[in-house]
Amino acid sequence: MWIYDKKLEFPVKIKKRNPKLAKLIITQYGGPDGELGASLRYLSQRFATVTPQAKAALTDIGTEELAHLEMIGAIVQQLTANLSIEEIKASGFEPFYVEHGLGVFPSSAAGDPFTAAAFQSKGDPVTDLYEDMAAEQKARSTYEYLLDMIDDPDVAAPIKFLREREIVHFQRFGESLEYVRSYLSANHYF
Amino acid sequence: MNNTLYKLTQLDFYAVDLQLYLDTHPNDAKAIAEYNKTINDAQKLRSDYEQTNGPLTSKYLSPAEKFDWIDEPWTWEEQYN
């Protein structure tokens, strides 16, 4: 069960439209290392994990990723709000426009639609947490590559926030892995 | 951005971060005290904000005359933030 909170986790207020940048940032909405995949990965894996710490971490981080998905959607929406046909043509936004208009669609920067094939739910708590730690690092790298492309401080601020969250999540998954390891290596008598 | 909403966003984020920390450090008394203080402060700010600006969550609403949950702007819109 989830409850919607009518605010963003970190404010997104972009004054200058930039469809070219929107086409790149959309990858964190629906690309291979994006927030949607992250959320589904953790929220799916939690059903097979062990220890209260790992169950809580997967639930809470999976939930926070949905808040990040919303922030990325807001960034893309604000970067493309009310574009004219001339602006669309001048910025190379035509391929996205003919498929989705000015809607937000989960796809990668290269235009590939969202796919669950980019993540696993392996049913092995250790395997899954290793994947999660790698996933957080891949998302951090993506945010750093995006920051190389961003000049507008209004866009950079939420992207920097999201990058920092990847580091915190990596840390929490590492701690969860320790709990899972010690649980699995202990003798259990029933 | 509305100043109360800005402060609430900060406090709620701090609570999210503390919650993740507590997931893997559930017996850290100092962090529990900090978490309790944070959600208490956030709850007060939330009530203040909701009294003048309408509800932030649709659960436990008790609308009087109008269902103001639907009021614009919504979260992704530039005017909201």
Full CATH superfamily name of chain A: Ferritin, core subunit, four-helix bundle
Report the mean per-residue pLDDT of chain B as an integer. Answer: 93
Give the radius of gyration of chain B: 15 Å
| CATH top level label of chain A | Mainly Alpha
Strand content of chain B: under 5%
Name the assembly state: heterodimer
User: SSE order of chain B, as H and E?
Assistant: HH
**Low-pLDDT runs of chain B:** none
- Uncertain segments of chain A are none
Largest sheet report of chain B: none
Helix content of chain B: 55-70%
How much helicity do the residues of chain A have?
55-70%
Can you tell me the number of structural domains of chain A?
A: 1
- Report the mean per-residue pLDDT of chain A as an integer: 97
Helix-strand makeup class of chain B: mainly alpha
Describe this entry's structure for a reader.
- The complex is a heterodimer of chains A (190) and B (81).
- By secondary structure, chain A is mainly alpha-helical.
- Chain A contains 8 helices and no strands.
- In chain A, α1 runs antiparallel to α4, α3 packs antiparallel against α7 and α7 runs antiparallel to α8.
- Chain A is elongated.
- The two termini of chain A are 32 Å apart.
- With 81 residues, chain B is mostly helical.
- Chain B is 58% helix and 0% strand.
- The interface between A and B is medium-sized, with 32 and 29 residues.
